[in-house]
Amino acid sequence: MHAHHAPQGFIRKYVFSLDHKVIGIQYYFLALFSVLVGMSLSLLMRFHMIHPDAKVGWFATLWPTAAQGGIMTPELYLSLMTMHGTIMVFFVLTTAPQSGFGNYFLPIQIGAEDMAFPVLNMLSFWTTFIALAVMVAAFFVQGGPPLAGWTAYPPLSALANSGPGEGLGQTLWIVSIAIFCGASLMGAINFIATIIDLRCQGMSLMRLPLTCWTWFVTAILGLLGFAVLLAAGVLLILDRSAGTSFFVPGGLMISDQILNHKGGSPLLWQHLFWFFGHPEVYIAILPGMGVTSQLLSTFCRKPIFGYRAMVYAILSIGFLGFMVWGHHMFMSGMSPYSAMAFSVLTMAIGVPSAIKTFNWIGTLWGGKIRFTTAMMFALGFVSLFVTGGLSGIFLGQPALDLYFHDTYFVVGHFHMIMGVAAIFGMFAGTFYWFPKMFGRMMNETLGKIHFYITFVGVYAIFTPMHFLGIAGNPRRYSDFTNFDFLGKLLPVHTFMTHAAYWTAGIQILFFFNLFWSMKYGKKAPMNPWNATTLEWTVSSPPPFDNFGGQHPVVNHGPYEYGVPGAPRDYVMQTDPVDVHAE
Amino acid sequence: MPSSITSDIIKPPAPPRGGGFGGGGGSDGRGASRRASMTGLMVLLAATTMAFAAFTSAFVVRRGMSNDWVALPLPPVLWVNTIVLICSSMLLEVARRSLKSGRRGEFNRYWTAGTVLGALFLLGQGFAWRQLNAAGIFVASNPSSSFFYLLTAAHGLHILGGLTALVYVDVQALSLRLGPGKRTAVDVSAVFWHFVDGLWLYLMALFLVWG
């Protein structure tokens, strides 16, 4: 066996690279750019919520029509909300944990030289890039970005003159999402084929690190979900531009004109969308669960508690995830019997979720915990997952959901579990794998300051939302000052907005730490965390073909820490079978 | 070089040494092995199935929920197209088996014939569209015609992708770059073609029963 050398030349090496590691980093930075855009939009929304009448000079410069005289219109607020949700869900939560970290570490963790289809991998990244460019372009077209929300419910999203942004902006939105679906399908094909066929000798399924299991199941969810979203997107585009009536009912009047559409069903879109949309939640959170499992075991110096139970829990979360989409539609007037069925299935997901949480706590129990920044974020993930999951039990009841559905309770719930928990998974992954990716260590002191303020900050932002929801504060409204019953809640909004400023501000520390450490961080050894999986058997960063032309042979499970009688407190996956004879 | 018959296309290469399941079995040691290619194809077919399942459920729901559905008169040329497509699939399968047992000349003839029939199918579909247009039935005329155009277009795109693969394999075959030991592209494109063939039969059944 001989080592393969990287292609020379900037373009082949860094731009149109076929190397899964370069592509992983490209995805990571794409997500980093997107999260900055998404976070800025959320700050604008939070600002508007407590200063709805404020005149801001540069608003008028940015949006001459939507913010005439510097005052944000409700339509502009809805556009910001739509773009915040879309960019965060698709280009951050779907992109970084799976395509970013997954691309970089999946082949190394299973002992492969690259993904199964490197060219497809490159295409998949650049297609995602085009999708992002098209999405961002919606900010700059006439009418501005769409305002139909990230769920793009018709008829609003299907009719070009139903509001500002519903013309070219909404078209760009659908086209971007369709392109994104294509990119995700390519990525999913690559991930699944790689895990099934490219595992090295000895890497049986039950020796896969849990990160690989979550990437695998996430890829399956993406494959099945994005195919359906793509189909739904095609139908929506036809309704918009070809005059069909899949989703648009008859008799609608817009601008005093009766539309030609007739007979379509907006609920059909909701069914198709949420058949994708619910698995999408797991696409965002499963990789975070994998990273958390990996880190808890590594930093407790204990095997993961119940490895097999974890695998089966991941599989059943993925399986059940496809059968509960109706719980997003309790408000749609569905038959109470269907609602009951969806509700029971939704509650059933609580079982594998509780198994995972129980096993995480079981792993922590009696461990020799090393409180690194990466570990802190993994613990933060567990905390946020439990908090966000508990409010899910309320929302899964049709009777309660009818009350909560259009309130801030839902906003608090999904930000906790899908947004912030997944982001904490990404932070954990970043601090854990940065040494391998960039060959240097991140600063632990800055990391811990960043962690504590972020952790307190996100609870300060999102916990009050649950109380607002219980008090009846509706979501998607841009201005609460005109409602008497909401008057007493305004101080809570002020508190949340200031918490958001603080939390967003402290992220500067993270960005500084990230880029500073890339250049000036302490040199990283091969295995700084004394971890066991294959990526820690190669240099930091790994050579071009990952293993220098060797084919690793795996003899051990992924989490053999604290093995009695072994010379170290951990056994690498590639260590000889009889570690005692070493 | 392609002009001479090299031994590696007659005899399969030895499995990679010490390399467990995969370890990158491509010609340069990186990238797709034969197994991974077949897996990737199966995964792709799963995604296509999901997309058409979504279309089907939209079809059934949209048809059942309102009373504006008018049955679409299917252009008779679709029956000719169906037979052409089935023949195309059968020819490709004969070709594939010829190559497996080393009859390369036979492979070239049958594969080329199957590819030509595939292109004919696409032309025939275009002809069916023209007939419908001439009868005044357009995409927005009725939900039944919307779905007909949508499903035939989506299927046609898959045919187009399949044809690209068939032509690619044909060019490889005619320049003598394929053999019993080098036929992953043949198998992958043939299986994909059989799938779109089956998909078309399914769509015909859908149009006949519910269209």
What is the fold's blueprint, element by element?
The complex is a heterodimer of chains A (582) and B (211).
Chain A: H1 10-15, H2 20-50, H3 57-62, H4 74-93, H5 95-109, H6 118-137, H7 168-197, H8 210-241, E1 253-254, E2 257-258, H9 266-300, H10 307-320, H11 336-364, H12 373-395, H13 398-404, H14 408-438, H15 444-470, H16 490-520
Antiparallel strand pairs in A: 1-2
Chain B: H1 34-65, H2 77-100, H3 104-134, H4 143-174, H5 184-210
Fold and architecture overview:
Helix content of chain A is 61%, strand content 1%. Chain A has 582 residues and is mainly alpha-helical. Chain A has 3 domains: 233 residues, Up-down Bundle (Cytochrome C Oxidase, Chain A); 230 residues, Up-down Bundle (Cytochrome C Oxidase, Chain A); 50 residues, no CATH class. Chain A is globular. By secondary structure, chain B is mainly α. Chain B has a single domain, classed as Cytochrome c oxidase, subunit III, four-helix bundle (Four Helix Bundle (Hemerythrin (Met), subunit A), Up-down Bundle), CATH 1.20.120.80. About 9% of the residues of chain B have low confidence. At the A-B interface, helix 6, helix 7, helix 8 and helix 9 of A face helix 1 and helix 4 of B.
The low-pLDDT segments of chain B are: 15-32
The helix count of chain A comes to 16
Strand content of chain A: under 5%
CATH superfamily of the largest domain in chain A: Cytochrome c oxidase-like, subunit I domain
Q: How many whole angstroms does the radius of gyration of chain B measure?
A: 20 Å
Name the CATH superfamily assignment of chain B.
Cytochrome c oxidase, subunit III, four-helix bundle
Number of alpha- plus pi-helical segments of chain B: 5
Assembly form of the protein: heterodimer
CATH fold category name of the largest domain in chain A: Cytochrome C Oxidase, Chain A
Summarize the helix and strand pattern of chain B as letters: HHHHH
What is the typical, i.e. mean, pLDDT of chain A? Answer: 94
List the chains of the largest interface with their residue counts: A-B, 53 and 45 residues
Q: Give the CATH level 1 class of chain B.
A: Mainly Alpha
Rg of chain A is 24 Å
